[in-house]
Amino acid sequence: MELVVVGLPGSGKTAVGRRVASRHGAAFVDLDEEIERAAGRRIPEVFEAEGEAGFRRRERDAIEALGSPDAGPRLTRVIAPGGGAIVDSRNRWRLFRGRRTAWLDVRTEVLAQRLRRSPNVRPLIVGRDPMGAIRDLSVSRHRFYAAATRVAGIAEMGSVIDAVDRTLVGAAASGTVLLRAETRIGRIVIGEDVLAAEVATALQDLAARRAILVSEPGAWAAVGEGLASSLAAGGLPVEHVLLSQGEAAKRLSVIEDAADALSRLRVERREPIVVVGGGALGDAAGFLAATYLRGIPFIQVPTTLVAQIDASIGGKTAVDLPAGKNLVGAFHQPAAIVIDIAVLGSLDVRQRRAALGEAAKMAALGDEKLFATLEADGAAIAAGDTAATASGALAEVVERAAWAKVEVVLADEHETAGRIGLNLGHTLGHAIEAAAGFGGLLHGEAVAYGLRAAARIGEARGVTPAARARRIERLLDALELGMSPTGLDRNEVLGFMATDKKHAGRALRWVLPTADGYAIDAEVPDELVAEVAAGVLAGRS
User: Fold this and answer.
1) Which of 4, 80, 178, 413 has the smallest number of Cβ neighbours within 10 A?
2) 138 has which bridge partners?
3) How far apart are CA 176 and CA 179, in angstroms?
4) What is the rounded average pLDDT for all residues in the chain?
5) What pLDDT is recorded for position 502?
6) pLDDT at 124
7) Element (H or E) spanning 199, and its range?
8) Looking at the domain 183-347, which fold is it?
9) Percentage of the chain with pLDDT > 90?
């Protein structure tokens, strides 16, 4: 087996790692030393000559050079990466999978004292107050370190080494946690093959006496039954309630039937339900949780790519009316969201491709790294190419898109200000969905048409630079989204836009992409909207 020791600068990764390796007769790898050996210069000199970007490239190369982990029963290698190495999702993917992990968690005051006395130069700390610098790094990196097994790093050295040793005892966990964050909008966990363990932990934290799974037939067969079996094997009694499949779940009559089922199960106010399904099921079952007994806890288990990167995050629950999509709903945050990319293996190509419409939206909102990843790997992810999963590209897209939404929601939980940016592409997209009867197009497919419309309107209004508009459309072309003629009547689509929730003072607020973000325009002429809508609905040659 192999062990990775992570932590902030000054946490003792090298000292602890060397001692643990020596105790077990294992090799010790200090990645900073490997980088210095390859570069022929010290880390501060690498930063000075190549900048942080150059250093991070060398860091990625050093991690990739580690190769596959040793899966044997004896500890053979201990690896200590630099404090910032695991901020990069591909680095975490390569380091954590198949290895034991230990996070040396040390208080910021202690780290600041250590760094003031240390002869080693930390380029990201130099010239700054150590306390403030470490506090900033702790906040920004906590979710990455917390994916590892926490070890209190402030005790006497022997005790710390003993605690790290205990992470090596017993069978290895079957999966890999890549990110763990406790937030105001619930616990967020992203990983691979972590579903049953993380749901069980969340239920235990909520003092649940049983597991009540709410799902729909497709998700139940693909994911729910296996999850139920695992929870039952762990000693939890399991009940389940099935709603309709797809958008058909988002009807008030379905919610009434589901509430009756919860009543027959005598579900109490503090008793959580586990919502297992895609975006439509999550909307409906989340609304059920928000309204049954005036609100009960729930755990989101998104089983589709679009749900993992978008629909499961934010606490917006809703059902549809004949007049439009999501017109009856509530804000109700889950206790936890468990995102397991392993469950995506059963998705068909169309579902994967459609989901990337939402990822493209997040990229267009200003996430340049996500934009570049989609340009490089999006087509392979859409096609279900196993290499895109093995390389960590799929995990990176899920993490970047999901966390970008988490940050937006944390800043504007109830959509009073900045959260409206998440509606980029949805103004026309929701109208297209409604005109198609909420069944002819998948959500992400409709959003892709809407994103094209927003780029074209933004360019015509002088908001979106031409180069940015072209880049957005090229990405959608590469993903094969928003290209086919919809066959929908333009006037019918425009009619559904009249009921859009983004109206304010009777004016429709368009979210339009800028060079690095978005702008709101409530004065887009009807003639321009009609012209662009006609072009988008007709598809691309």
Assistant:
1) 413
2) none
3) 9
4) 92
5) 58
6) 56
7) helix 195-205
8) Rossmann fold (3.40.50)
9) 79
Reading the block at residue 89, the tokens are: 């999702």
Helix ranges restricted to H, 240-392:
252-264, 279-291, 305-306, 349-364, 368-382, 386-390
Structure tokens at 532: 């662009």
CA dihedral 154, 160, 164, 169 (to 10 degrees): -130
Other C-beta atoms lying within 10 Å of the C-beta of residue 517: 11
CATH dotted code for 2-172: 3.40.50.300
Output the CA–CA distances (angstroms, integers) from residue 129 to 105, 113, 116, 136, in the order listed. Answer: 20, 11, 9, 11
Question: Taking a C-beta distance cutoff of 8 angstroms, is the pair 474, 527 a contact?
Answer: no
**Looking at residues 450-473, what average pLDDT do you find?**
97
* CA 41 from centre of chain: 37
The answer to whether 372 and 74 are in contact (CB under 8 A) is no
Percent share of the chain, pLDDT over 70: 96
The reported pLDDT for the residue numbered 503 is: 54
294: left (phi over 0), alpha (psi -120 to 50) or beta: left
Confidence of residue 349 (pLDDT cuts 50, 70, 90): very high
Distance CA 157, CA 12 (A): 9
Residue 42: half-sphere exposure toward Cβ, Cα within 13 Å: 6
Which amino acid makes up residue 88?
A: D
List of residues 6+ apart from 385 with CB closer than 8 A: none
Three-state DSSP at 512 gives strand
pLDDT category, 382, cuts 50, 70, 90? very high
Residue ranges per domain, the chain? Answer: 2-172, 183-347, 359-538
**Comparing C-alpha atoms, which of 256, 317, 314 is closest to residue 281?**
317
Condensed to tens digits (0 to 9), the pLDDT of residues 204-231 reads 999 999 999 999 999 999 999 999 999 9
* The domains spanning 2-172 and 183-347 adopt the same CATH topology: yes
CA distances (Å), origin 148, targets 15, 102, 104, 533: 18, 5, 9, 48
Q: What confidence tens digit (pLDDT) does each residue in 486-504 have?
A: 999 999 999 988 876 555 5
- The answer to whether residues 475 and 359 touch, using CB atoms and an 8 Å cutoff, is no
Tokens of residue 484, six digits: 């086919």
CATH tag, 359-538: 1.20.1090.10
pLDDT in tens, 81-119: 998 999 999 999 999 999 999 999 988 888 777 767 666
pLDDT 10s digits, 19-74: 999 999 999 999 999 999 999 999 889 988 999 899 999 999 999 999 999 989 99
First-to-final CA distance of the chain: 54
| Residue 272 near residue 203 (C-beta atoms within 8 A) | yes
- What contacts 463, CB < 8 A, 6 or more positions away? 512, 513, 514, 519, 521
How far apart are the C-alpha atoms of 38 and 47, rounded to whole Å? 14
Instruction: Provide the β-strand partners of residue 537.
Output: none
The 100-105 sheet, strands edge to edge: 27-30, 77-80, 2-6, 100-105, 149-152
